[in-house]
Amino acid sequence: MRFLFAVLGAFQCILAASSPSSPQFHLSLVGDGSGDYMLDWVTSVDEKSSTVFFGASNDSLANKADGTSSGNVVVTPSLSVQCWHARLSGLGAAGSTVHYDLSSTGTTSKSFVVSGPSMTWAIFGDMGSIAMKKASGITLPALTSDLAAKSYQGILNLGDLAYELVETNGDVYMQQLEPLTSVVPMHTTIGNHEMQYAMFGALPNYIRRFAGLAAGAGRASGSSSNRFYSFNAGYVHFVVIDTEVYGDQSFMTPGTDGFWSSSETARGQMQETQRSWLEYDLSRVKRKVTPFVVVCGHRPPSKIPNAITKPGNQFAAQLLPLLDMYSVDLMFFGHEHAYYSIEPTVVGKYNVPPWIISGAAGNNELIRPVSKRRRTSSCGHGGRRQLAPRMASPPPAPVGPQPIRWSS
Predict the structure, then answer these.
(1) Structural domain tally of the chain?
(2) Which of 125, 131, 297, 310 could form a disulfide with 243 if both were Cys (CB 3.0 to 4.6 A apart)?
(3) Segment among 35-39, 232-236, 307-311 with least mean pLDDT
(4) Within a domain: residue 160?
(5) Cβ(303)–Cβ(344) below 8 Å
(6) CATH number at residue 381
(7) What residue ranges in 309-372 does DSSP mark as E strands?
């Protein structure tokens, strides 16, 4: 196996430097109060530099930000792409339209509207590439029509991207999302498929393609990671965590030789790093500014791998004390290819916030039979949802914050 990856690694070095079919733009929020956005994109591998130009109109892209390369991603034996990211600053007040392009002429510019205090989010996990067919990408038409109707202003993509985020399949996935992610910010996390297929490029590709998350929200929140980080959006403090550190599959990590291999030592170290960071992050939340705290990850607490009440569940052991201490309001997860919700409950001496499973966006399985959604205080399956659920966070009323509204 090591010989196979050595051959693949050598082969990557001689790939032809063809141009990608699109820049695959995707935005994300820095979320530190600055109003800045991060932008990720791809170019051909022979580009020595790449700059994004932006401004108030497509014929006046007066500002520019130099891109930082995060490395190359293999698409086919004859094509690799180079990943870039840059921070867009000085964008104007909420509601301002920003045009941007990789050329100062603006002939192919995209645009987005600077987010305000009230945002609606499309939240889903486990959406495959349309190249996979079957049920993969089934949510895409709904997301596209909802974006045209301005029904949401941000996306939370909760892991298991593309099935898998490698080669042509991963490239098609990024292309299919570009009409959305070039207009509204998308924040992601990794799932078990990124970890499981790390040796084949899924996790390295995630790290490179979403490097803007690490440089933006990651750096601002103190993690400098795109696997766990936080950001403020309106009246919500979002916390994104890497649930694979608590999973039952091999925990993959790169060695000094560049090869990815399983390491339980690395898992333990990452658990401690993430727990320490999470405590630091939650302790700094200013509830008068962001009265709601929402935690997002891929695996729900009931799949780590045992039930949350069972011994050995490291999510419960390490995170429940923090979720209770800092009064987390809500959690979102994917992984289960279904849609259902769990009511707030108590495990041991800790209060567990409600959580919602939204993992039916279009996985690589056939479509499941329709069943009735039910609300339960213990883990169970609900109905499959084809339309991505949305969460809206309204501004606080004068007498105090109103509750989060949830619709599907």
Answers:
(1) 1
(2) 297
(3) 307-311
(4) yes
(5) no
(6) 3.60.21.10
(7) 330-333, 339-342, 345-347, 350-352, 355-358
Give a yes or no: residue 287 inside a domain. Answer: yes
Shortest CA distance to 241 belongs to which of 173, 177, 332?
332
Nearest 5 degrees, angle CA 293-CA 278-CA 41? 80
Per-residue confidence at 217, pLDDT binned at 50, 70, 90? very high
Residue 205 pLDDT: 98
116, with CB counted inside 10 A (0-12, 13-18, 19+), is middle
CB neighbours of 178 closer than 8 A, spacing ≥ 6?
22, 23, 24, 25, 26
- Tell me the sheet residues that pair with 405: 392
Pairing assessment for the beta strands 236-240 and 292-296 based on DSSP bridges: parallel
From CA 17, how far away is CA 74, in angstroms rounded? 11
Domain interval for residue 279: 113-407
Give a yes or no: residue 157 inside a domain.
yes
DSSP for 56-124, written as a single string: SBTTB--EEEE-EEEEEEEEETTEEEEEEEEEE----STT-EEEEESSTT-TT-EEEE---S-EEEEEE
Owner of token pair 């499973």: 357
Confidence of residue 18 (pLDDT cuts 50, 70, 90): low
Average pLDDT estimate for 279-287: 98
Strand order in the sheet with 51-55: 63-66, 51-55, 97-101, 110-113
